[in-house]
Amino acid sequence: MLSILIPTYNYDCTQLVRDLQKQAEKALTEYEIIVMDDASATCKETNRDINSLPHCQYIELTENIGRSRIRNRLADMARYDFLLFMDCDAAVCKSDFISTYLSYCKTQSQVVIGGTAYDPHETNPAYSLRLTYGLKREGNQNYDGCFTTFNFMIPHKIFNLVRFNEDIHGYGHEDTLFGIYLTERKIPIIHINNPLMHKGLEENGIFLQKTETANANLLKLYREIKRPELPATSRLLNTYLNLPTFVRWCLGATFRLLKPLITKQLCSKKPSLFLFDCYKLGHLCTLES
User: Fold this and answer.
1) Do 80 and 2 touch, CB atoms closer than 8 A?
2) Which domains does the chain have, with CATH numbers?
3) SS3 (DSSP) at 112
4) What is the pLDDT of residue 145?
5) CA geometry: angle 11, 17, 19, nearest 5 deg
6) Which residues have CB under 8 Å from 18's CB, separation 6+?
7) Model-level pTM?
8) What are phi and psi of 94, to 5 degrees?
9) At a CB cut-off of 8 Å and minimum separation 6, what does 158 contact?
């Protein structure tokens, strides 16, 4: 019935697996949980305990293969008709998480996204930007680039039609392209209230670095993979492409000058998402030059 697939990297996901395994047992369904480690440097010893749980296995890769390839490999190993993908830095926050997904296993014609929740008691200012972005943007199921790999279920036969593009390396937008593949095949994507809690928040500086990597991937997707749907999927890219070249150059130069001040504000206790949008557009314009 259900293959639960978790790629992991330098993260202890034993509690996540235990919670999922207990719910799957209670649901009286056929299931398996496969955790695949992308050549981590830490947490492997702890994660090996997963192998002692019924219907669970922990697989260690000897080389890092990246976010797209590891998900494809997990799907290739899966035995059941429905694939439930999630990130390793998640925590179960609903007692009926598995049973809710099982109620959507009556048809193999749609993809289901469960959503992302955040700890309301998390107040560490080191995570202020990631937390603010998550609550105000990712908490909105219609936010820009709304397909996310954090927590979704897909029929195995549909996954085999689309798969993740393994030409995308590094962080960012492999999920955007996957969503485009689904859309062009007219496969419904539905959002439900069945979140996992995002526990592995990045500190503000690291989140900004990953944002810049995602920007570079977005531009690469548009220029090299040449997906005409991307501007309609990404408001950021659409705005950028509608700017005259000279304006892009000016914005890029201005961003270089103001970047330290913008970064300081974004790393404060109350970061501005408007400035974060400006940061992303300004950085994208620096890539032009």
Assistant:
1) yes
2) 2-201 (3.90.550.10), 206-288 (no CATH)
3) strand
4) 43
5) 125
6) 53
7) 0.89
8) -130, 135
9) 108, 109, 111, 182, 187
**pLDDT score recorded for residue 189:** 92
DSSP per-residue codes, 207-243 = HHHHHHHHHHHHHHIIIII--TTHHHH-HHHHHHHTS
Residue 240: per-residue pLDDT: 92
151-164 pLDDT tens trace? 999 999 999 999 98
Q: Which amino acid is at 223?
A: R
**Residue type at position 49:** D
Q: Kindly give, in sequence order, each residue whose CB lies less than 8 Å from that of residue 146, ignoring residues fewer than 6 positions away.
A: 113, 179, 191
> Helices 204-220 and 273-288 sit at what angle, rounded to 10 degrees?
50
C-alpha–C-alpha distance, residues 217 and 240, integer Å: 14
Q: Is the pLDDT of residue 123 over 60?
A: yes
